[in-house]
Amino acid sequence: MKNIQSELPIFYETAHAELASALEMLAACKGTDTPKQALGYFMHAKDEYMHAKCFFKMLSQRGIKVSLEKAREFRFTPPSLIIKGYISNKGFLIDTMKLKDFIAFVYTNELLAKSSFENILNLVGSDTDEGKIISSIMMDELRHHGMAKKYFLKNYPALQPWQLVMYRFRETLQNKGRKLYDANLKFLDKILTPLYKGMAFVAGNMARKLNLNEFKREGKNLMEISSKSIL
Amino acid sequence: MNLKEKGKILWKFHLNLSFKVSSNFKMFIGVSGYNHESAAALVDKNGVLIDYYREESLSRIKGDKSFPRRAISKLLKSNNLQIKDIERVAFYERPLSAFLHIVKEASLNMPRSLSLLVHQFRNFNRSSVSCYLDFAKEFKGLETKLIYSDHHLSHSLTALSYSNSKKDVCSVVVDGFGDRSTASISQIVNPSEINELWECPYPVSLGLFYSSITDYLGFSINEGEYKVMGLASFGDSKSKSAKLVRGLMDWDSTSNKIISDMSYFDYHLSTSNSFNSKLEDLLGPARNPFVQLIPGESDFQRCADIARGAQDLTIYLLQKIFTHAHKITRSRRFLFSGGVSMNSASIDSLAQLPFIDEIIIPPSPGDAGCAIGAAFYSYIKSNSYIDLKISKPSLFPSLKEIRNDEFLTEQIIFNQFSILEKDEDDAFLKAAELISAGEVIGTVLSRSETGPRALGNRSLLCDGKNKDAVKKLNTVIKNRSPFRPTAPAMRYKIAKKYYRLRPEIYDCYQSMSATCQCLKDNVSLKFPTTHVDGTARIQIVENNSSLDKLLSILEPMGVEILANSSLNVSGDPNSFDLVDGLMVCSRTKLRYLLTDLGLLKRKT
Ligand SMILES: [Fe+2]
Ligand SMILES: [Fe+2]
Ligand SMILES: [Fe+2]
What we know:
Chain A: InterPro entries: Ferritin-like_SF (IPR009078). The complex is a heterodimer. By secondary structure, chain A is mainly α.
């Protein structure tokens, strides 16, 4: 049980990541200029949806076995894709990045995804049913990586393969940075929570005295209340 | 070309441009978001809803409640508008009021509510309070045109726009929580005079009660309420569980107030728990969301009885609210909106109240639909009363894709699909033949629905009397919970043969907003689209709609009823454009897709 409980976050987060990739690819499909690229992104999105489905299934197989409290904690709701930062609230990558950077991003991320799956594969064992599924997902990621690489080299011939390695290096660093930042944030959060609570306690005590009767509208014509007021 | 000619052309161009801008001028935008699904609506100077998008349709994230950046952008882009063409933008609620009501309630329950308070203060910038800043950041200039409507007023105006008469009608709004209250009754004298007469103050809330039971039963809040409603049909009102749930809220007839024992609920105190251990002590343990609920299996009956209790209580309280509304307004015509009005299983009993002549429910009665009401609010606020003309919006309000679907999907279709019929009439005929032969087909036709229900343009369809076909649609393609019925769609003259229709809610049948009883001893009781309790959530198709056309071909073939479900994979929003439809086809076992480009068949 304890083991399963510690696995929950891994499948939960991976399912988020895969679904987010699917949505990014679908957005790229709709945002691209050529029918050929649209097809490429469409097929990629389809793969990613399938990956997400597999990880959601693995998540729920573990979810049935844990305590109700844990199960509720790891229940997926789509808006958490944004809340957890898997989809930026600024928009999809295709809309916010230069095309070249977007392709390079796909190129490096597919490889990073593949390596993160290696860890999960170790967890579930490579000869289990789940292991086989994960292995085939890893093949998909390699294929996606290859496609992005091919596209990149064809459309930006002035760039050399070593430059792609640079991209990868940069992205890996950023990824590590993100993780570090996340860890720092969590640490900071732990320290600050009592402070936040203290502040909320003080603010709450002030809020208690708020008189919200002014908000009452009984008998009033709602169309005549000032349209400029946020109260 | 000489200079003179160039000058002429430039002048013409300028004329064109100025004509365009002046003709577009005076557009009104309404926006909802942050608390529930976000959306944006566009109303023109003649009071016509000309475009509408839910953010989830574009982001593909179901229940997306973030600032509707994509929806607003698309409104502007698709309609060739610039910021200067917009006269006013209305936000659907008063942000600070919404914020303070939650904080005040939580502050009365410290220290239990401390985590909610911390969350409120820390996420101040993500609440609707920041909507001004979001406008300023994303659509510079629009923030200066921003005005605010009351939450329930936005609901009322949305509903009012769908009513044929815009005067002397009573609006009932029941939802989770708006910016002040959780239910209200208003008398609409005319669009400029809407008097609020009664409210149910937060935190007592029929909507949040229903959501808490949804959560307790292991379904997601804001998504699983439909499942609870479907589950209720399997429950027994006389069971102990149902009676216990039924006792959690009541109507006090001396004070005319809804009363609720809040000690069972935590939705006003916590960000993560809507109910607490006291409710579990009362009803038994809550259900693990990962465990599938299957009829006949252990614990199914207890869950169904609990759902039944929640449904009984909802119907009882709604009847009380409507009766009170009639008492204080003397009105016989009602608008009904807010999330709770999506409870289609309660509408039939409301229609039977003796004083009801008509109930209008907008096709999108939840907060996403509020964007429409907010847009009309800014329209009404900008026009004098005599000039007001609010047109009844279409059930299919989103503009057709400007971007050429045909161009963009050319390679996808060429690679993954074959085109069986290109001509529209041939495609419809072939689709009808497939349906009558027991196939399931998807549709991506013309403009998309307001939501949340698919009415034929973004649907999965099959012969509604064919058990195998309906089963295939529900299980093989959609993976729907086995206790949720599929809706039957038909023309009016067919519906009369099978169902107990109520003229008071005729409009509701067009948008699938109300269930109805099968006629006594009628063959319809055996239809696979009929629920265990002998009801069906029917759709009477609108004249000249895609489904009307399809049924006109199908009826002579002996297919009078279509099973109609949304074209999506469960957990996703309904399809919005052709790419979404093609994706559903590619991800599921669906093989046929009826589109504006013809009838497509997925290559195997
Ligand atoms: Fe993947
Ligand atoms: Fe991938
Ligand atoms: Fe609402």
